[in-house]
Specification:
Number of helices: 7
Order of helices and strands: HEEEEHEEEEEEEEHEHEEHEHEEHEEE
Strand order of the largest sheet: 1-3-4-7-6-5
Number of strands: 21
Structural class: alpha+beta
Distance between the termini: 62 Å
Radius of gyration: 23 Å
Largest sheet: 6 strands, antiparallel, barrel
Helix content: 10-25%
Length: 319
C-alpha cells in the first residue's frame, strides 16, 4: 500500500485492477457453469449408481427437442437409465447418442425443451492458445491457471490427438473441460488423461476433436480400421531413407487392417487418392467414411534392400 493510499479508505489502482480481473474470471466461470450438467445413471439390476458428484457433462448443442451433452464414455455406456441435472435444478431423461471408447467421450441427448436458463458451450480455437494464456477448469476439476504447453500429443487406436496442458494442479482424476477467458471449450479432460498425469491438468485440444464431437452429436460412431500409427519424421527420412507416411506401430488382431493383411512396420502412404503424411491425414479419411466402406490403402513395406509398394483393400468396421 502506498503512502498516498494509507488511511484514505481508497483502493489503489493496482488492487482495483486485480479485483476487476478476479470478477471477470468469476463471470466467465458462471457462464460456463450454465452449460454444465451432472449425470446420474441407473444400472440394469435396479441399484443406483450415482455419479452426480463425480461425473460431469457440458451442453454442446441443442435443438427444439432437447440438448446434446458431451460427457465421459465410461459414465454412461452400459446403463439403462441416464438422468441429466441442469444447474437451474431441472432434470431430464437422456438417451445415449454415440460414444467413442478410445477418446473416452460420449454424447447423450436430454429430452428437455430449450430454456434460457441453460447455455450451450462453444468449442474454441485451441490452436490459438499460447503458453502463458489464462485458462479456467470446469467440471469436477475446478480452478484457473495458465496454459504451459501447446505441443503434447497422445496416440491411440486409429487416432492421435493434440494435448493442451495447464499449470492447474489436481488430486483426483476425473472428467471436465478447460476453457479460455471467453468461456469457450479449448480442451476436453477425460479420466484417461488425468489418470496418466496426476499433477498438472491437461486434455484433448478442442480443435483436434471437433470433428469427432460433431460426429457423436450426429450419432456417428467412428469407423474402425485397427492400427496405431506415428508420422515419419524428417530425420528418419533423410538419415535412413524411410519413406514419408504414417508408420504402423501396431495392428490390432482381428481388426479390418489385420484381416486385409496390413502389418506392423508398414508405412501407409496413400488412402484412395489422398496422400497420407501423418495421423491427421489418416483421421480425415476415417472420419469421412462409414462402416462397410472399402478403402484402397497403399503401404510401403520393407524388403531386404528396399521398400515394396502394396495396395490393400480394407473394409471398415464399427469401433
Amino acid at each position: 500500500e502506498s503512502e498516498s493510499d494509507a488511511g484514505t479508505g481508497e483502493t489503489s489502482p493496482e488492487i482495483g485492477r486485480l479485483t476487476d480481473y478476479a470478477a471477470s474470471l468469476k463471470a466467465v466461470a458462471a457462464g460456463v457453469n450454465k452449460a454444465s450438467v451432472k449425470i446420474t445413471v441407473l444400472s440394469s439390476d435396479g441399484s443406483w449408481a450415482d455419479y452426480s458428484d463425480k461425473e460431469y457433462g457440458m451442453v454442446v448443442s441443442g435443438d427444439d427437442s432437447g440438448y446434446y451433452i458431451l460427457t465421459d464414455y465410461s459414465a454412461v455406456v452400459g446403463y439403462d437409465s441416464i438422468t441429466a441435472e441442469f444447474t437451474d435444478g431441472a432434470s431430464a431423461q437422456c438417451t445415449l447418442v454415440a460414444g467413442d471408447e478410445v477418446s473416452g467421450m460420449a454424447v447423450v441427448k436430454a429430452s428437455r425443451n430449450k430454456s434460457n436458463a441453460v447455455a450451450i458451450a462453444r468449442l474454441g480455437n485451441s490452436d490459438a492458445v499460447s503458453a502463458g494464456d489464462i485458462v479456467i477448469a470446469a467440471g469436477n476439476l475446478y480452478g484457473n491457471g495458465s496454459a504451459v504447453d501447446a505441443h503434447g500429443y497422445q496416440y491411440g487406436t486409429d487416432c492421435g490427438y493434440g494435448l493442451l496442458l495447464s499449470d492447474i494442479r489436481y488430486e483426483i482424476s476425473g472428467y471436465g473441460f478447460i476453457c479460455n477467458t471467453s468461456g469457450e471449450i479449448i480442451a476436453v479432460v477425460t479420466t484417461e488423461i488425468t489418470s496418466k498425469n496426476n499433477s498438472l491438468l491437461g486434455g484433448y485440444r478442442a480443435s483436434g476433436v471437433r470433428t469427432l464431437i460433431e460426429n457423436l452429436i450426429n450419432g456417428r460412431s467412428r469407423s474402425y480400421f485397427g492400427i496405431k500409427g506415428q508420422p515419419i519424421n524428417s530425420a528418419a527420412e533423410d538419415n535412413y531413407g524411410i519413406p514419408a507416411g504414417l508408420y504402423v506401430s501396431a495392428v490390432e488382431v482381428g481388426s479390418p487392417a489385420y484381416s486385409a493383411g496390413i502389418q506392423t512396420g508398414d508405412i501407409i502412404t496413400r488412402i484412395d487418392a489422398k496422400t497420407i503424411e501423418n495421423m491427421s491425414d489418416f483421421m480425415d479419411k476415417l472420419n469421412a467414411a462409414d462402416s462397410g466402406d472399402i478403402m484402397a490403402v497403399t503401404v510401403k513395406r520393407k524388403s531386404r534392400d528396399s521398400y515394396k509398394e502394396i495396395v490393400f483393400r480394407v473394409t471398415l468396421g464399427v469401433e
